[in-house]
């Protein structure tokens, strides 16, 4: 067990450290742009700043909590502390999914061609960002309120097997069976709805970039290049991120479902779910840093990475393919 816990500690420490470093660089970069370079400000900066803040809180609740309890330190949070930790963890998870969905939907509208039905939403798209973020906060703060009022944690259960799962203060259940069923149903519907929206937006962006690539290739068929076009690189980035998201999301769902069927629960599944939940907040900032030339890159990690083409101007004056914000949805 010592070796397994040591591996969990090292992975959690790496996730938390790299994730906090990347998200901190993003926050400082956006603050610098807002104060010293307002001419470079873009509508997506507000969405990305919000996503970055949510990532930081998620990493602190997932990674730091896992790190503390995986080292064998006695759980001193008790009922109230575990309720607060579970509440914050679930709220930030939901906000991450919704914010990433908003980002992908906004970008899909932004790059839509003038002949598309979505083109008429371009002038109004920026005005929907703040109301959408406020709605997300209200939705999730109220959705998970039952965790603070009507749940019981396994710490108070005499079964020693169930008490093991209090390692992350993550296993909570309601006193009423129907409340559990309704709550799980609402969360499942929420996840499915926003995942479908993100899938549609990502697929739509891939189609737009593919058609744009075909048009450019047809116009400039005389001057062929051995290097892949920016549109192709952007499309590959989208597909890579979508694949990573669905892989992490599906693995987390499978492990979560499997954990409900196991009678003798242990830390292994809880460790896996917790570490998977921190993968997306730890990975997404580095994708954005590598893609956005406005944000300085930490030399210790991305110092040698060459800057890509300038990002997409929301006004549509630049090429579609140079946008750095083709980010699909949030995993757990």
Structure description:
There is one protein chain. This protein has 332 residues and is mainly alpha-helical. The chain has a single domain (2-322), classed as Up-down Bundle (Rhopdopsin 7-helix transmembrane proteins). The chain has 12 helices and 2 strands; from the N terminus they run ααααααβαβααααα. The protein has a two-stranded antiparallel ribbon with strand order 1-2. The two termini are 26 Å apart. The relative contact order is 0.15.
Key traits:
332 residues; mainly alpha; Rhopdopsin 7-helix transmembrane proteins; 69% helix; globular; Vmron_rcpt_1; membrane
Q: Characterize the largest beta sheet: strand count, sense, and whether it forms a barrel.
A: 2 strands, antiparallel
Tally of helical segments:
12
On the 0 to 100 scale, the average pLDDT is: 73
Total number of strands:
2
Q: Kindly report the CATH topology.
A: Rhopdopsin 7-helix transmembrane proteins
Calculate Rg over CA atoms.
Answer: 21 Å
CATH architecture: Up-down Bundle
* N-end to C-end Cα span: 26 Å
Strand order of the largest sheet: 1-2
Shape field? globular
CATH class: Mainly Alpha
Mind telling me the CATH superfamily name? Rhodopsin 7-helix transmembrane proteins
Order of helices and strands: HHHHHHEHEHHHHH
How many domains comprise the coordinates? 1
What's the helical proportion of residues? 55-70%
SSE layout and pairing:
Elements (H helix, E strand, L loop, with lengths): L1 H35 L7 H27 L7 H34 L10 H4 L3 H15 L1 H5 L1 E3 L6 H5 L7 E3 L2 H43 L10 H32 L5 H11 L1 H13 L7 H4 L30
Antiparallel strand pairs: 1-2
Helix pairs in contact: 1-2, 1-11, 2-3, 2-10, 2-11, 3-5, 3-8, 8-9, 9-10
Keywords: Cell membrane, G-protein coupled receptor, Glycoprotein, Membrane, Pheromone response, Receptor, Transducer, Transmembrane, Transmembrane helix
Membrane topology: Multi-pass membrane protein
Function: Putative pheromone receptor.
